[in-house]
Amino acid sequence: MRIDVHHIRAFLAVAEALQFSVAADRLHMTQPALSRIIKALEESVGAALLARTTRRVELTNAGRVFAEHCQLALTHIDQAVTLARRAEAGNIGHLRIAYMDFAINGTLPGIVESFGKKFPSISIDLVHMPSTVQKEAMLDSTIDVGFMIGPFSAPNVETRVFGREPMVALLPAAHPLAARKTLRLADLAEERFVLGAPHSWEAFRHHFFSICHRAGFSPTIAQEASTSDGIIGLVAANTGVSIYPECIRNIQRSGLCIRPLADKDTAIDMVVCWRADTRNPSVETFVSELTMTAPRRNAR
């Protein structure tokens, strides 16, 4: 006989009750049927598990050992069933999330932290990727979720705006314009700019040049940097000025002056994207949680 869960549960019922009649009632079967199961189980195990007399039933030494390990096995099986159901519901799993500088300097850390507290059994790998690289990775299904500069449209890819960041001006602390509380982009027309390098800041550069042209000028680029830290450092070193989403206020840096831009058409859309045909249920869990918490984040 091949031992299965039903045989184990039947044996444990007898081991607990030490009466075939009581165990049979609990299992909703006849006593002869239960006796046949136990006899077949003992034959499969190759050892007597129960010592029977006309008045009582007792576990043999082999029976006690078998019962102990059967109980552990059932506990593991029950846990496996529970975990499998949670995984199917997206409450257990793994996510590979890509982000770019504006996301990690903005709301993403809080999003990941709150999600991790609510769903501790979903592990997350955070991977830094420029927006253009994220788009390729999303199409190749090498990332589950991407936080990038929008817009992004592709077959089987869902996108949602998770933030609209106003732009601010970055100035050296001693710059004459630092004396003003608010600037317009046109006030920077004669300045030399520090800008992100093309290979990693392509999406932002497109936005940057577009808003400068709308403001009536073509910017002069003095220096390029591959990271936000590089841009901030070069501005603080009086190499030039720059513009950056308002999330820059989350970064403390001496020698840097941040001033809001009064222009109403400079804000940049930050989008979250995922594949609509994903087989990873944790993606749906993450997106649902992101959607539910969006009103609270936007109200801050």
TrEMBL record:
Residues 3-60 form the HTH lysR-type domain. GO terms for cellular component: protein-DNA complex. CDD domains: PBP2_LTTR_aromatics_like. The keyword DNA-binding applies. The keyword Transcription regulation applies. Belongs to the LysR transcriptional regulatory family. This is LysR family transcriptional regulator.
